[in-house]
Every structure is written in structure tokens, then in C-alpha cells.
Design goal:
The protein has eight helices and eight strands; from the N terminus they run ββαααββααβααβαββ. It is α+β, with helices and mostly antiparallel strands. The protein has one domain: Aminopeptidase (3-Layer(aba) Sandwich). α1 runs antiparallel to α3. The longest helix is centred in the N-terminal third of the chain and has 15 residues.
Length: 225
């Protein structure tokens, strides 16, 4: 049964679902704060301009599931963005048309993610999942744990229940995200050490000199009881 959605508020901040009306803010936020720090893109040497185009195009598609969250100040300035989507066995992630063979570096990154995630539905014995696919925040608020103060993962869990999902999953490619998800109750399903991974087509390895603090990627899951 559907449950009522309630925004999370704390002092001068509000956490709410983002909608199509927020797209200009989302596109600008991603280009300014997410793309320059996207560790996996750096390790696979994905072109910065392309990565911005891919991520913003993807965000426009994901937002249609109405389960993504933004944190805003009292002036409606976005200070945090957490994107999510609903997937089923018959509706898996559909990446934008810009991800063709003409983008070999991006294709290498996607092969890594497919290797990390595996056969999600079979491995987790799930029919419907919520995929937490991107999160980033304004640098002025780093270290303030807004994800916890604003109860972002509690809200995600309530959305997952409302949509009758079996679990929430995420591909955590940075140490920072992994720590947050573990604290939020996620368990590690699969871990891939960056220095051990070899691309099955090119034979190349991720360039770890561009992201030395991140040692592995983790596919993580939290069951919905």
C-alpha cells in the first residue's frame, strides 16, 4: 500500500523529491560539483565534457521515476543531490544513446561497472530493486553529514517500500560512498580491487594515479524487509 511522502527538514535545509522543474539546477549542479570529482571517470580517462553530457542526460531519464532527492537551502539553492531509479527484470538501466562505440573510454568504464554489478536480479534473487545511482554535494557542506541529518537513506528506504522493491543497491566506487552506505546499513555483495582489474577487451588497467585514495569498488545492497 502506498504511504504518504513527507519531506525532511532541518534548520535552514529541506530534503525533497526532485522533479522536472529542478532540471536546470540538477544539470548545473552535476557539471559543477559531480563531474570534476567523478573518480571512476578519471581512472578510465573519460573526457570531462562527455562525462558531463552523459551524466546530465542520464539524470533527465532517471528523474522520471520520482524517487531522487535534493537538499535545498531556504533560497531553494541545491546543496546536495542523490539520484535513484526503480528497476525490474523487464526494465533494467537503459543508458543514453550517446554511449556508442565511438566512446571507447566510456565503454571501458561501463564494462567495469557491468563486471562489478554482475547479474543483479539473479544474484540477489530479486524482481524489483531501487538503484542508487549518483550522489554529490556542494563542497561548502562536506563533512556535515547532511545525508544523515536529512535522513536521505531513510527516505530512500520508504520509497523502496512504497514501490514494493526487494532491495536497494548501489555501485560504490569511492571510499567516501562506501563508508556512508555501510553506516546506512548496506552490505557488500561484491568487491573489485582496482589494481587487480584488467579490461577484458583492451587489457588495460584503471589509471590509479588519478585517484589514489580509492582502492576498490563495492557493489552494495540493503534488503527491504
Amino acid at each position: 500500500m502506498k504511504q504518504g511522502y513527507k519531506m525532511s527538514t532541518f534548520q535552514d535545509f529541506t530534503c525533497r523529491k526532485v522533479t522536472e522543474r529542478d532540471l536546470p539546477k540538477i544539470v548545473n549542479f552535476i557539471a559543477t560539483y559531480y563531474t570534476p570529482r567523478a573518480s571512476l571517470a578519471h581512472m578510465f580517462k573519460v573526457d570531462l565534457q562527455f562525462n558531463t553530457l552523459f551524466t546530465t542526460t542520464r539524470a533527465k531519464e532517471v528523474i522520471g521515476d520520482h524517487v531522487s532527492l535534493g537538499v535545498f537551502d531556504r533560497n531553494e539553492k541545491m546543496i546536495r543531490l542523490n539520484m535513484a531509479e526503480i528497476q525490474t527484470r523487464n526494465k533494467i538501466c537503459q543508458y543514453p544513446a550517446i554511449t556508442g562505440d565511438g566512446y571507447p573510454k566510456h565503454q571501458a568504464r561501463m564494462r567495469f561497472l557491468y563486471f562489478l554489478e554482475g547479474d543483479v536480479f539473479s544474484d540477489l534473487k530479486a524482481n524489483k530493486i531501487m538503484f542508487l545511482c549518483m550522489s554529490t554535494g556542494h563542497p561548502d557542506y562536506h563533512g556535515q553529514r547532511l545525508w544523515k541529518t536529512m535522513k536521505i537513506y531513510d527516505l530512500f528506504e520508504s520509497f523502496a517500500r512504497e514501490n514494493e522493491c526487494d532491495c536497494m543497491v548501489s555501485s560504490a566506487v569511492s571510499n567516501y560512498t562506501q563508508k556512508i552506505l555501510k553506516e546506512a546499513g548496506f552490505l557488500v555483495v561484491r568487491e573489485v580491487k582496482y589494481w587487480e582489474y584488467v579490461d577484458p577487451i583492451t587489457g588495460e588497467k584503471p589509471d590509479l594515479s588519478l585517484s589514489e585514495i580509492h582502492t576498490s569498488a563495492m557493489f552494495m545492497c540493503k534488503k527491504i524487509n
